[in-house]
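Cross-check.
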Amino acid sequence: MFDGITRRIVSMWFPRLASDRVLRQRPIEAPFVLTLKQNNAERLYCLNAQAEREGLHRDMAFADARAFCPDLHSRPADPQADRRFLQVLHRWAMRYCPWVGLEGRDGLILDITGAAHLWGGEAAMLADIRARLARAGLSVRLGVADTRGAAWALAHYGEGVAAPGDMLTALDALPVAALRLDEDTITALQRLGLRTVFDLAKRPRAPLTRRFGPDLLKRLDQALGRQPEEITPIAPPAHYGVRMTLPEPIGLVDDVMAGAARLLDRLCAKLQTQNAGARVLLLTLRRVDMASQQVELRLARALHDPDRILSLFERGVSTVEAGYGIDQLRVEAIEVEPLPPQQINHVAAENKDRLDDLITKIGTRIGLENIQRFLPADSHIPERSFIIAPAAYSEPEGGWGSPRPRPLRLFPPEPIDGTGPHPPTRFRWRRMALTTARATGPERIAPDWWLQDRNWHSGLRDYWQVETRQGRRLWLFHTPQHPGWFVQGEFA
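Predicted model, tokenized:
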């Protein structure tokens, strides 16, 4: 009892959540399953009703299922998409009560205490839930009881509504599996002849505790209301959006920037309290004719500094057509990242901030993904010793770990005249006649024999640093197995 009101819980179980999600987009009037690879074998993850009528079941080998049902349709499962869909259903279920939590990977739990009368009673509420989900193409099983455990049991093993006050009467005929026990415990109880909840409830508690531990009776007591079990609702995601309605329309860039500055102060204050930073912001300007224009700002780094963000908005705002005037401004952080406090050097931080702002300004014109940087990679092969990554989504790393210097410029090997093991005294490269002044080497590099690379099919390479009298500093290599000389890079 809670303030004289009996607590009432609704368990909402979606037995075919994954398959229903897929079939809502692409309906199929045939047996359909989703498969998931487990232990190097494809197994059935979720089935529609027609597949179940063919005798198929979850965790069945996909090859066996195809043998039983030749006209079976299938698709790979996507558990992450299923979790996102369940989150959508969670938000939808809050129309019935504010206290909604997740129940496993395919269920919801609702505390409807004091809310059912708003829908005309429990029966009317459940009818509305079933009707709406049926129109959405989702199969659901509902259980209503005084406790979370009893509601779950009714939803999974005996869909129905338990009368308030006596949970044992509602559950006594259900199997012991309805108490949310593990498979080993269920099997052991059945071997002892304890097959129903009533069989378990009438047995002495001490022997059961000694044999199965405290968890068994804990689950029983939770279902019968002897021990409390809370429902943990999911906190709604933080909303990072602020708006301002103006008493008079504005149209000058300076006025819009002044309004955006006031909004950014409020938005960034909220971001700072949440230790978060905006990565993508959207400024929406509503005109008096109800048309809207938007300015999107994609930042090279997550920020919650209003002054820095405001200056980066200026170019986009200058392109806005104000028409007869703007009467409402709205700033929303549509992509947010964690930005915990850090102890940094003020000199290094200032230089980094300038670089990030420069990347953002250039990125607004050509796209952040088109501004790239070289990062070291763990490979002794020159062509594989670096990777190219977008500068906005990567951090600069330390220098390359090679024991020998590497040229600033690398290019595909270009052959030159020469056959001996030492660099040629005179050679031509790119129509230039060059003379060797000093050579340092060799540095032997062997190919990765486990990788197929046509550039290294010739085998070993002996690299030399060659300084020419003409001022060129080149990186040459010799292939001893097929004598020949090549230029692959140039030092600064």
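The chain has three domains: 1-236, 241-338, 375-492. The longest strand covers residues 432-445. Passed to J.P. for a second look.
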